[in-house]
Every structure is written in C-alpha cells, then in structure tokens.
C-alpha cells in the first residue's frame, strides 16, 4: 500500500493513534458541502490556589471533578440541538454549547468547571 492507494480511495484504513480510534473512508458523498473557520475561543486561565499543591488538594479536586464533569452532557445536548434546529451547528445555541464543551474538555487541566443551569449552560461562578 502506498499514499496513492490511500488518496485514490482504494484502501480503508483503521488505526489507533494515542488511544483514539478512527477510520478513513473515501466516499465523495460524505464530503462537506462547505467548510467553516475553526472556533477561536478565549484562553481560560487555570485556577491558582496560591501555594504548592498538597495531597488533600488532589483528593478534593478529584471528587469535585467527578461531581462536575459535564462534557458528555454538553456534547449530547449539542448533537441533539444540531440535529433539531434548522441552522444546525450554526445556531447560536449550538455555538454556545461548543464553547462550553471547549471549557469542559479542559476542566481537569484548568479547574474551571461548567455548570448546567435549568435554563441553559453557564460557567460556574466561584
């Protein structure tokens, strides 16, 4: 197999890269009709506790993380809304959910959590 075989669509490739499974399928009917610019969300500054991290800090954060990890919920809401709304992923609600997912995916690194409010999603205060 060479790169020309792959590029011409003669080969389906399945691989594992750092644990992420993916397939490369060459089917012209699956090509997007338009390509959007990538999102450019502001960088979230990690929480600073103002002292060296101790074991009890890690234990506390682990419990808090397990209670507040909302990435799956946000992703499912985004998928459902994109399927239901006429504008799909371009709908302002989907754009907001995508931004919230961006914050939620970095929660373990930044300590900034996303709260699910009854009306919609918002960043947690404090």
Distance, first to last CA: 55 Å
Overall 3D form: elongated
How do the SSEs run, as a string of H and E?
A: HEEHHHHEE
- Residue-averaged pLDDT: 79
Count of β-strands: 4
**SS class:** alpha+beta
Integer tally of domains: 1
Helix content: 40-55%
Strand arrangement within the widest β-sheet reads 1-2
**Residue windows where pLDDT falls under 50 for at least 5 positions:** none
Q: β content, as a range?
A: 5-15%
| Count of alpha and pi helical runs | 5
Radius of gyration, in Å, reads: 20 Å
Major sheet: 2 strands, antiparallel
Give a concise summary.
40% of the residues lie in helices and 13% in strands. By secondary structure, it is an alpha+beta fold.
Could you walk me through the main structural features you see in this protein, from its secondary elements to its overall organization?
The protein is an alpha+beta fold. It has one domain. The protein contains five helices and four strands. The strands form two sheets. The protein has a two-stranded antiparallel sheet with strand order 1-2. Strands 3-4 form a two-stranded antiparallel sheet. The protein is elongated and about 55 Å long.
């Amino acid at each position: 197999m060479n790169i020309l075989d792959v590029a011409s669509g003669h080969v389906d490739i399945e691989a594992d890269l750092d644990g992420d499974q993916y397939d490369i399928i060459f089917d012209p009917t699956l090509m997007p009709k338009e390509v959007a610019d990538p999102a450019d969300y502001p960088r979230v500054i990690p929480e600073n506790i103002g002292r060296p991290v101790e074991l009890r800090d890690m234990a506390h954060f682990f419990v808090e993380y397990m209670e507040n990890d909302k990435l799956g919920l946000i992703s499912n809401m985004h998928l459902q809304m994109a399927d239901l709304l006429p504008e799909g992923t371009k709908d302002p609600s989907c754009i907001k959910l995508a931004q919230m997912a961006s914050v939620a995916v970095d929660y373990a690194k930044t300590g900034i959590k996303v709260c699910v409010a009854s009306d919609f999603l918002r960043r947690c205060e404090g």
